[in-house]
Amino acid sequence: MNVAAIIVAAGRGSRAAAAGTPPKQYVDVAGKTVLARSILAFARHASISTVVVVIHPADLAAYEATFATLDIATQQRLRPPCFGGATRQASVFRGLVALGDSAIDRVLIHDAARPFVTSDVITRVVEALSLSVGALAAIPVTDTLKRGDHDNTVIGTVDRTGLWRAQTPQGFRFAEIHEAHARAEAAERDDFTDDAAIAEWAGLEVALVQGADRNVKITTEQDIAMARTLLERGAAGQRYETRSASGFDVHRFEPGNSVWLCGVEIPHIAKLEGHSDADVGYHALTDALLGAIGAGDIGQHFPPSDMKWKDAASHIFLSHAGKLVADRGGRIVNVDVTILAEAPRVGPHRAAMCARIAECLGLAVERVSVKATTTEGLGFTGRREGIAAMATASVELPVEMPT
Q1: Which CATH superfamily is domain 3-235 in?
Q2: What does each C-alpha distance from 118 to 50, 121, 210, 233, 364 come to in angstroms?
Q3: Which CATH number does the domain 239-399 belong to among 3.40.50.2300, 3.30.450.40, 3.30.1330.50, 1.10.10.1590?
Q4: What does each of the 403 residues of the chain score in pLDDT, given as a tens digit?
Q5: Three-class SS state of 219
Q6: With contact defined as beta carbons under 8 Å apart, do 277 and 387 qualify?
Q7: What is the separation of C-alpha 95 from the centre of its chain, rounded to a whole number of angstroms?
Q8: pTM for the complete prediction?
Q9: Burial of 248: CB neighbours in 10 Å, binned 0-12, 13-18, 19+
Q10: Judging by DSSP bridges, how do beta strands 164-173 and 134-140 pair with one another?
Q11: Is 329 within 8 Å of 239 (Cβ atoms)?
Q12: How far apart are CA 114 and CA 187, in angstroms?
């Protein structure tokens, strides 16, 4: 499979650029321009065969200066840049046209202003294209959403169920997205805000894959300052330490017809009793992650006395723990869950469980393990009175450097 990447760098970045400074994609951040960091993320990825950068005609000298800072292997992956159009949509189409004379099967389209895209995110988008015509990296919306009027007064709360924050890269099968862009141009439609919207308009299926919190878009001067601070700390010798912790949870059975285990609903002769959905796997893993960063336990963050969490889906708890790790500048290395139960059988659902955990935490699925065992008829699980789960998690956290 021949996969190309288009990096869109033709914008002017007016919100991020102070007077007299270059567009944001050419701003130096800890020794490399924002554009250089985006190029390197794709050019060094094993799945990407070639990269084309779409630039503004006025930025040719700035692009050439960035190109000169790249290593030879990266330069060899780059095609000559092409000039963008009046809109992002037009710029992407010109990038597609520039790739049209090569045997490209798949294409990933990425905003240059997202320089911290991870290899795992790129991999997930590429892999999703084996099953879907399109795929985009995205993050589930976890914040409460409010609708305001013209006076900035709250007039309602928006249901966030099923809402995602779109990121890039957005990947597509090349022929289909090229045709969709051509149709949009022929129809004089230039109001699409991203390539997934064009694909949707053209009737193409687009899958959602887990993005990453660190895959932020640099938009303002404050974003540049934050990125520079984080990277300069790393360049100055920021050290990381690995921490591990365990979690344990148990729930008894009560009348019902299914149980939730690691985000998967499994038919059963009973359900698990609990204030939330009683997903022992997610609960144990949430405690393991909270323990690894010294953030207490699940009961402190989501007290069972709070009716807000009555019948809540436990992916909320696990996502919260993962976000706390990210907020502290850390990353999850791997997680492992063991289910202790005589029934139901976990084996047929193991792959789905691993996928749910990986999606919830923004991990590659190979960093997730789910196992199951019985207690040979001993104890409360042996008597089929309930289910228990044990979990371990390893995370890397930055070590505070002396000031």
Answers
A1: Spore Coat Polysaccharide Biosynthesis Protein SpsA; Chain A (3.90.550.10)
A2: 18, 5, 11, 19, 11
A3: 3.30.1330.50
A4: 789 999 999 987 654 445 457 888 998 887 889 999 999 999 988 889 999 999 999 999 999 999 999 988 889 889 999 999 999 999 999 999 999 867 899 999 999 999 989 888 999 999 999 999 999 999 998 888 888 888 788 888 988 888 999 999 999 999 999 999 999 999 999 889 899 999 999 999 999 999 988 888 888 877 887 777 767 655 545 567 899 999 999 999 999 999 999 999 999 999 999 989 999 999 999 999 999 998 889 998 998 888 888 889 999 999 999 988 887 778 899 999 999 999 999 999 999 999 999 989 888 888 999 999 999 999 999 999 999 999 999 998 876 543 3
A5: coil
A6: no
A7: 25
A8: 0.59
A9: middle
A10: antiparallel
A11: no
A12: 30
The kind and range of the H/E element at 200 are: helix 195-201
The domain segmentation of the chain, as residue ranges, is 3-235, 239-399
| Residues in the chain, total | 403
